[in-house]
Amino acid sequence: MLKTALKPRWILMLILAMAIAAVFVLLSQWQFSSSRDAPPPAPSATENVRPLTEVLQPLTPLYSSTADQMVSLDGSFLSGTRVLVQNRLSEGEDGLWVVEAFAVEGSDGDPEPGVGGAVIPVVLGWVPEADEAAAIEEQQGPASVVGRLLPPEAPEVQRPVEGQVPTLATAELTNLWDRESYSAFVVASEVTVGGTDVPFAEGMRQVVVGPQPQETPINWLNIFYAIEWVVFAGFAFFLWWRLVADDYRRSLEDAADAAEAAQAEGADRRPDASVVVTGAGPSTHASTDPTSDTERSAHSD
């Protein structure tokens, strides 16, 4: 079988199988490296308050490297933009988030200094019932906010409730407010007007969001794909071996057929023994003695 494997065509096929297996191994390594997501930013970085305009720009996606960052922003709360976000838990109790649009001063597209251009949703607090939110005075006018920057949620299809949304999806709020928006929202921890802290209204509980846990999550689906690529690499060599084995088996069968054909041809070419018929009757006698015919002729004379 080694002689068959050393044929030029099978050597070339082996090189091709090695190249394919190498590609599969590289894909496996890539899947393994992708199975562990990048760890979240360390609290030492995220807890250092930075201006929002330095961290994120409007219409720019929020990546994991900047999510969870504590930011500060100056601008104005826009009147008539309050919405309630449904299905929010606080200390195990179901309720709603109170959210308002905040026009960020210094953002791209800022039409006038002090008015702000692009808006970002700001979570001001939590209420157990929508009726209680109606009794809380709406924030309006210039203010400064410090809070945690978080990625937006995905929109959900749900029967609309006036003044409420099922998720905090910035794409949906952009259409609702008809303003250019950031692709993120801020959970406020401090709100100040003219340098004076604005206490959270009675009946509205502050929403507290801590830094992300530092565990690096593992994506088991990527690990499964990585194992699959290793199996495919092994299958490339297995397929080459099977093709060589089939070629070797065919060569043995061809050799056996050739030997049988040669043996049959040799039997057909072997000379026949001479046959002598004696007596006048129907009985016959075969003789191989070369002198029998001569002696029989002498006796008859």
Short description:
The protein is rod-shaped and about 125 Å long.
**pLDDT < 50 stretches:** 282-288, 297-301
What is the share of helical residues?
Answer: 25-40%
Beta strand count: 9
Shape: rod-shaped
Percent range for β-strand residues: 15-25%
Mean pLDDT: 81
For the record, give the distance between the C-alpha atoms at the N and C termini, rounded to a whole number. 73 Å
Largest sheet: number of strands, sense, barrel closure: 5 strands, mixed, barrel
What letter string, H or E per element, gives the SSE order? HHHEHEEEEHEEHEEHH
Class from helix and strand fractions: alpha/beta
Radius of gyration: 46 Å
Strand order of the largest sheet: 2-4-5-8-6
The DSSP helix count reads: 8
Question: What descriptive keywords fit this protein?
Answer:
301 residues, 5-stranded mixed β-barrel, 8 helices, 9 strands
Structure description:
This protein is of the alpha/beta class and 301 residues long. 37% of the residues lie in helices and 21% in strands. The chain has helices spanning 2-5, 8-34, 43-46, 52-55, 130-134, 170-177, 220-269, 292-300, and strands spanning 50-51, 70-77, 83-90, 93-104, 119-127, 141-150, 164-165, 185-193, 196-197. Strands 2-4-5-8-6 form a five-stranded mixed β-barrel. It starts with a helix and ends with a helix.
